[in-house]
Amino acid sequence: MQKPVPTLFMRGGTSRGPFFLESDLPSDTAARDRVLLAVLGSPDRRQIDGLGGAHPLTSKVGIVRAGTTPDVDLEFLFAQLQPDQDTVDTTANCGNMLAAVVPFALERGLIQAQADETTVRVLTRNTGMLCDITVQTPLTPTGRQVSYEGQARIDGVPGTSAPITINFLDTAGSVCASLLPTGQVLDRVHVEPTAGADFPAFDIDVTCIDNGMPLVLFRAQDVGCTGQETPAQLNADVALKAKIEALRLITAERMGLGDVKDRNYPKMTLVSAPQSGGAISTRCFIPHVCHEAIGVLAAVTVGTACVLEGAVPHALARLPQGARKAVSIEHPSGEFTVELELDPHDAQKVVRAALLRTARLIMRGDAMVPAAAWSAQATGAAR
What we know:
Number of domains: 2
Order of helices and strands: EEHEEEHHEEEEEEEEHHEEHEEEE
CATH architecture of the largest domain: Roll
Helix content: 10-25%
Mean pLDDT: 93
Largest sheet: 17 strands, mixed
Number of strands: 19
Distance between the termini: 15 Å
Structural class: alpha+beta
Strand content: 25-35%
Low-confidence stretches: 376-383
């Protein structure tokens, strides 16, 4: 027999995946992870037996519950799965899936619409990050409902949708101990080839930074690229990916992240001068596949590095004047604008980061989970 689990399948930003109420999943973590793996169809490269889309961007899950403290309306746990692995990683954030949290909560009745716009404070349980999310909730003949239709456009998603504004409140040091986890804005790293890797040893300048997502930023030219390659070209470059992975393992240790062989961070980001009127051009590995766009929190972190004097992207970036900057991050499928507000007394301190996303409810129903995915002690926690 199979067990039905109530699910809303949603797009959030440029990602998508099933969303669940926490109470509809096993309370036991191991059983919960087995259920999520079964729902997505991992491990299998095609995820043929589940809802996964055979790509890290479409192997994501959102778990939501009502806030447990007076100052928080909703709590969100993000889970990153991989098509061909049996891992469920809940240590990092996902700003794209975050965009679908409030629509999901409204659809499931966890919260009520307030007016034409509804603003909700959300705690991301992965890292303790807080943000205020505003969605459109117009009055309809049956009451106020979340709207998915509108004129907001984000690169990487076809068409237009209703705007969703995310105002991040405390992103510095989301996974690492601080914004600059190595203690400096620029590091020189010596990289030796790992076992089986075919590249000569090299030295490279990097910026290790975490303003919502741990990133390692380096010039594309320093790894033999222009920075304008397509994701397909970069993904096909075996030697390049070996270099980047060797660099990732070394810098992760310096960032205090330990052994990250089985982790999805830090993300490795090639930067180059902008080509289409933006502030900086990026190619972001997540961490072993080049992103077709760029993650929300990765964009926030790249934008932050652009304003830090001495950081790798600072010399390449073309930034607007003023304490409030709209920083356009170019990526393979367009651009992503992040609004950064700087401390008026410290031009290198970001005090606010905000951005625009969209989301859509794609399907509602039950995810059918094989009974074997539920342990005996977790069966009673199922709904």
